[in-house]
Amino acid sequence: MTDDNKGGSGSGTGGSAGAGAEGAKNKTVKMSMDEALAKVDQLTKALTEKDQLLGEVTGQLKEANDFISGERKAKKINFLLASTNFKMDDLVPKSDEELDSMIVTVQQAKLPHVNSARFGVQGVDLNDREKGLTVGDKSWVTAQKRKAALGAG
After folding, report:
1. Are residues 63 and 35 both part of a single domain?
2. Lowest-pLDDT range, 59-63, 90-94, 108-112, 116-120?
3. Which end of the chain, N or C, is more open, meaning fewer C-beta atoms within 10 Å of its C-beta?
4. Tens-digit pLDDT profile for residues 86-105
């Protein structure tokens, strides 16, 4: 077999018609490349706008989360202030986990019973046993000891 039947550009058959078809293809390719570059520019601008919008929304979301977190922490601190002797300065720097564990501890603490002899006004001297007095004893001897203890103290 010879190379005459291959129909290449050197064969002399249809050379000019092939060049016209290639020129049309190059024009189509060039036009699609221009369209693609324009589309890339448009998409780049759109992506930049979306990134800016995403940054703004992320900032707003962070602010909202900080606000909600602050409200939760304030509720925990208010509970602890009402049920313990902690001061505000002690509770504010603590983390949420520390506040949660403190709340659990306070909730599990055994509270005094209403009918307990120790239940009553806070700040009352509770060391009567050390003074030889018994709580709830209404005898004349105990009353005299109390008077003497208050007078001496």
Report:
1. yes
2. 116-120
3. N
4. 888 989 999 999 999 999 99
Q: Within 13 Å of residue 94, how many CA atoms lie on the same side as its CB?
A: 20
Contacts of 142 (CB under 8 A, 6+ apart): 133, 134
Q: How far apart are CA 55 and CA 74, in angstroms?
A: 28
Q: Any residues with CB less than 8 A from the CB of 11 and at least 6 apart, and which? A: 4
What is the C-alpha separation between 21 and 28, in angstroms, rounded? 11
Q: Are residues 99 and 130 in the same domain?
A: no
Tokens of 75: 């509720």
Q: Please report where in the chains the tokens 């018609």 appear, as a residue.
A: 17
**120-139 pLDDT tens trace:** 545 455 555 555 555 555 66
From the list 104, 99, 107, 105, the residue with the least C-alpha distance to 76 is: 99
